[in-house]
Amino acid sequence: MTTSPTGTAMRRAARGAARASERALAPDLARGVMLLLIVMSNTGFHLWAARHGATGWHPVDGSTVDTVVQFAMIVALDGRVYPLFAFLLGYGMMQLFLRQTAAGATDRAASSLLRRRSLWLVVFGSVHATLLLAGDIIGFYGVVSLVLGWLFLRRSGRTLLVAATIAVLLKVWFETDALGALLGGDLGAVGNSSTEPSTLAYAAGEENPLAAAQTRLTTWAIITAFGGFAWLTAAEFLFGFWAARHRVLEDPVRHLRLLRWTAALGVPVGLLGGLPLALAHVGWWDVPAAAIGEGGAISTLAWLTGLPGGLGYVALFGLMAHRLRTGGHGRPVVVAVGAVGKRSLSCYLAHSIMFAPVLSAWGFGLGAKLGSATMAAFAVGVWLITVVAAYAMERRGRTGPAEALLRRLVYGRRPQPVTTTPST
Predict the structure, then answer these.
(1) Which residues, including other chains, have CB under 8 Å from residue 249's CB and lie 6 or more apart?
(2) Phi, psi at 285, each rounded to 5°
(3) Which tens digits make up the pLDDT trace of 284-318?
(4) Are 83 and 306 in contact (CB under 8 A)?
(5) CA-closest candidate to residue 355, choices 390, 377, 382
(6) Could you give the CA distance from residue 36 to residue 85 in angstroms, rounded to a whole number?
(7) Residue 14: pLDDT over 70
(8) Where exactly are the transmembrane stretches of this chain (predicted)?
(9) Going by C-beta distance under 8 Å and a sequence separation of 6 or more, which residues neighbour residue 27?
């Protein structure tokens, strides 16, 4: 005779986190590489002594190597990494929901678990921003996931695709002025020609640690509050929900055609969409400053094409995982990068621990002495440290500290598998 979970246990969760045997390579591999892309894209926050241009994001001074690095990052990373992050977060949310319902939890109980997790992500984000990084994205995605989880976790695949399509159309509709200026050739008609350098909002150049913390928390609060209505255009999450329902990354063999077409179309669109902004930023294309500033025609094009670019990257990771399934799955490099993906929250926070105190003016101030290229090299080094640490934890069967804390807060005191983490 079998019994189903009831009472408090049923209300909290029918089971704990994913077991090692349930994890697929592609999502973890994608998260591991994604963290390298994120730490690279965040480098501009810390170049607080450099002269910034109209974009407010990258410096406009430096060596030829710095210029090449800026060009590559604008084309391949800026605005492409966060759609990838959002997709994977949505994918992980739906995975968690489906595991709970498959184990016997009601839809309401599983949704309640996700809400609790999202609320704790907001808390994690607030602490992260106060102490280290104003650009924290955990809280923002926590708010978005609260809304989307409530509205869409229990919806059918068709409903998710319709909602995602509407979200894409809303993205375009909100930018009609910028797109009109782009299509009409009047590139300076919209946009901010003197966008404030991101280093100011992120307080990297502030010498007073308390003042820096106040600025960071204010910036984070604005970003996170924006998540309350940014869900209207959160197509990335919805595509992640849909893909998880169909196990696209867990079973890439059944979805090779979809993955190949998504990679073949999404990656080139993403790269080409960022190309005009990169050309203008480095001075190889003379355009009005407003065109590449906040809300400008060219910067909007780069932002809108970030969605297909991010989805294309996801598809590439799925195809890569498919190739590795037939050989190379156990290679140390693959295991190590996947281990970072399993501990993505811990590694993401570790980046800030190694970045902020070393680079900020309130710390050692190294950010004043680096350029785009040397900062990128520093970022790669930071990521490699997390790879080594995650690999060591993987071999010892230990989870990441942030994942362990989040799991304890979400699931309570029930025993949990030590080699897995909720995706972030």
Answers:
(1) 24, 26, 27, 30, 91, 243, 314, 317, 318, 321
(2) -140, 120
(3) 999 998 899 888 999 999 999 999 999 999 999 88
(4) yes
(5) 382
(6) 12
(7) no
(8) 81-98, 119-152, 220-242, 263-285, 297-321, 345-364, 370-392
(9) 88, 91, 92, 95, 249, 250, 341, 423
Handedness of CA 277, 282, 284, 286 (dihedral sign): positive
Could you state, in order of their start, the residue ranges of all structural domains in the chain? 20-411
> Where are the alpha helices (H) located in 295-400, listed in sequence order?
297-304, 306-325, 332-342, 344-359, 372-395
CB 66 within 8 A of CB 373: yes
Give the 3-state secondary structure of residue 59.
Answer: strand
Q: How far is CA 171 from the centre of its chain?
A: 18
Q: Rounded to a whole number, what is the largest CA-CA distance in the chain?
A: 76
Q: What is the pLDDT of residues 73-120, one digit of tens each?
A: 999 999 888 899 899 999 999 999 999 888 888 888 999 999 999 999
Give backbone dihedrals phi and psi of 194, rounded to 5 degrees, phi first: -135, 60
Say how far apart CA 242 and CA 156 lie, in whole Å: 8
Environment class of residue 178 by beta-carbon count within 10 Å: exposed (0-12), middle (13-18) or buried (19+)? buried
Nearest-angstrom CA–CA distance, 255 and 246? 9
From residue 21, give the alpha-carbon distance in Å to each of 388, 417, 419. 23, 10, 10
Tell me if 256 sits within 8 A of 322, measured CB to CB. Answer: yes
Among 356, 349, 314, 321, CA closest to 335: 321
Residue 345 structure tokens: 């929250």
Instruction: Enter the pTM of the model.
Output: 0.87
Q: For residue 90, which amino acid is it?
A: G
Check residue 247 and report its DSSP letter.
T
All residues at 6 or more sequence positions from 198 whose CB lies less than 8 Å from its CB, including other chains: 44, 45, 52, 56, 57, 135
Instruction: Report which residue type is found at 350.
Output: A
3-state secondary structure of 249: coil
Q: E strands within 171-269?
A: none
